[in-house]
Amino acid sequence: MHRLLMSLAPLVLASSLWLAGCASQLSKGEPSSRRGADASARKAAPDFELKDMNGKTIRLSDYRGQVVLLNFWATWCGPCKIEIPWFVEFQRTYKDRGFTVIGVSVDEDGWEAVRPFLASRQVNYPVVISTMEVEQKYGGVEALPVSFLIDREGRIASTHVGLVTKKTYEEEIRQLLD
Amino acid sequence: MKKKSASFWISALAALALPLSAQAPQILSLQEPQKVAVPRQGEVQVPLKLSMRPGYHANSDKPSEDYLIPLRLTWDPKAPLEPVEIVYPKAKLEKFEFAEKPISVVDGDFEIITRFRRTPNAMPGPAFLSGKLRYQACNDKMCYPPRTIDIKVPLLVQ
To answer: Of A18, A71, A77, B17, whose CB count within 10 A is highest?
Structure first.
């Protein structure tokens, strides 16, 4: 038992430092990106089930086999609005290669705020309204935008907090599709 | 000294890590309000001194775009004072990477001043004013969800 606990210590320490690192980066207000170099070390993306604007159930696990860009955003978030046209373009360009974007809005006013926004931007990918439970599963979603790139096996390949470049996303999407 | 067990050290590490990971950054801070003496007649001013973390801004009370969440101070109506006017800080028009046009924001150190008048049924003695300040902050790369600061101002009603 003692030996088992001792063997867990480095793991706990590594997790502690990783979490502390994330919190520290966020508290500095800097965008942060995390990429899993080794595919086998990637963590499974937590599954969820939420309704889209038309009442259709969107279940993350239904997209297993595709590369998914899971984007948490809000209508009041300026940096999120920069990314959305990129995501519309990625959806159009890479959809046939097994790629999709899923937008998760954290707007408190729900569809009342989100529906007109989606119509004005001609968003061509599924969008759902978040819940506390889903946000907790994805680490609390403290700042926006937050995006998770999920590989075809349903594992998180990279995480981006804050506005990063279109090029960064596109390179990662291509790598996961190839 | 008694040797600590492995489980003790693992628990200690986990206990250290969790508060760190759960800590949300403090973006807007309120200086503790001073006690306010409320005269028998006339108005009284209650200033709130606030500081925005460097590099961040909050939308002003009159945002320049419909989609932006305004700075909003509300007072509990049950207090012995009723608000006459809330004076928000002068906003700046500032251009950010994420917006096409400059937006109306506040940043740095600023004050929100509320002018109050005494309600007819205010009883002399110590009391409190309670309020809520809602704001939504961003920097040029990320935004934080709307937050609310609870405000409590001690009063001495004369």
So the answer is: A77
- CB–CB of A144 and B103 under 8 A? no
Percent of residues, chain B, with pLDDT higher than 70: 84
For A132, counting Cβ atoms within 10 Å of its Cβ (0-12 exposed, 13-18 middle, 19+ buried), the class is exposed
CB contact under 8 A, B16 and A27: no
Residue B133 falls in which region: left (phi positive, over 0), alpha (psi -120 to 50) or beta: beta
pLDDT tens string B33-78 = 999 999 988 899 999 999 999 999 999 999 988 889 999 999 999 8
Q: In this predicted model, which residue has the larger pLDDT, A85 or A1?
A: A85
- Residue A175 CB partners (closer than 8 Å, separation 6+): none
Q: What is the separation of C-alpha A50 from the centre of its chain, rounded to a whole number of angstroms?
A: 15
pLDDT averaged over chain B? 87
Q: Is the pLDDT of residue A33 over 90?
A: no
Among the partner-chain residues B10, B21, B103, the one whose CB lies closest to the CB of A9 is B10
Is some CB atom of chain A closer than 8 A to the CB atom of B156? Answer: no
CATH superfamily of A31-177: Glutaredoxin (3.40.30.10)
Q: Where are the domains of chain B?
A: 25-157
Give the nearest chain A residue to B8 (CA atoms).
Answer: A5
Chain A within 8 Å of B18 (Cβ-Cβ)?
yes
Answer whether A56's CB lies under 8 Å from A62's CB. no
Residues of B in contact with A144 (CB under 8 A): 142-145
Q: Which fold has domain B25-157?
A: Immunoglobulin-like (2.60.40)
Contact B22 A140 (CB under 8 A): yes
